[in-house]
Specification:
The complex is a heterodimer of chains A (107) and B (116). Chain A has 107 residues and is mainly β. Chain A is 0% helix and 47% strand. Chain A is built from no helices and 11 strands. In chain B, the strands form 2 sheets. In chain B, strands 2, 4, 5, 6, 9, 10 and 11 form a 7-stranded mixed sheet that branches. Chain B has a 4-stranded antiparallel sheet with strand order 1-3-8-7, with no helix packed on it. The chains are: A mainly beta (107), B mainly beta (116). The interface between A and B is medium-sized, with 17 and 26 residues.
Chain lengths: 107, 116
């Protein structure tokens, strides 16, 4: 069955520290993976997608098919990065979301 | 303002009542979705419509009935509300989904439904 797992419900780091939000997926075909972010009192929005291979707001994510992972990384966290992050898998016209990880960046 | 909008933002009602949530997008998208976010923040798709046609219906109780009068609107009607229906419901839209590829989904602000 297709599944997305984000093992950490909450990740708390200090400003300037590196951040890695973990995402593992289960999918038999060629996956399309995304990271969505929801800042406080804002709507859910796309942060990045694996096919773009781009860096958004300093975040990157590399698809590792061997480990079936799509971890989100940023070398130096900023306070404005505090938000809820969802990893999502595209499958037959729908998105399957992970449970979400709340990132808290402390000053 | 170009966006996905939902009404109402908050909905508090008694068990057994029937209620509707409305969604509109002015992005010119063909595909619209309803998602449910439970108390643990888990986000799960419920329905998807492409140009007024139902294309995804995830094992949702038939008390939930989506209606798409045109491709810019996707409303969600819920009959005989139960305590377990309390959640935040998100509407989303995307350009036409092509086979083998995915477009970005644009989300509404959510409707917080509380069933007492």
């Amino acid at each position: 069955a297709q599944r997305v797992t984000q093992p950490e419900k909450l990740l708390s780091v200090f400003k300037g520290a590196p951040v890695e939000l973990k995402c593992n997926y289960s999918y038999s075909g060629s996956p399309e993976l995304f990271w969505y972010v929801q800042y406080s009192r804002q709507r859910l929005q796309l942060l990045l997608r694996h096919i773009s291979r781009e860096s958004i707001k300093g975040f990157t994510a590399d698809l590792n098919k061997g480990e079936t992972s799509f971890h989100l990384k940023k070398p130096f966290a900023q306070e404005e990065d505090s938000a809820m992050y969802y990893c999502a898998l595209g499958n037959t016209g729908k998105l399957i979301f992970g449970q979400g990880t709340t990132l808290q960046v402390k000053p | 303002d170009t966006a996905v909008s939902q009404t109402p933002k908050y909905l508090v009602t008694q068990m057994g009542n029937d209620k509707s949530i409305k969604c509109e997008q002015n992005l010119g998208h063909d595909t619209m979705y309803w998602y449910k976010q439970d108390s643990k923040k888990f986000l799960k798709i419920m329905f998807s419509y492409n140009n007024k046609e139902l294309i995804i219906n995830e094992t949702v109780p038939n008390r939930f009935s989506p209606k798409s009068p045109d491709k810019a609107h996707l409303n969600l009607h819920i009959n005989s509300l139960e305590l377990g229906d309390s959640a935040v419901y998100f509407c989303a839209s995307s350009p036409r989904v092509l086979a083998g590829s995915y477009n970005e989904q644009f989300f509404g602000p959510g409707t917080r439904l509380t069933v007492l």
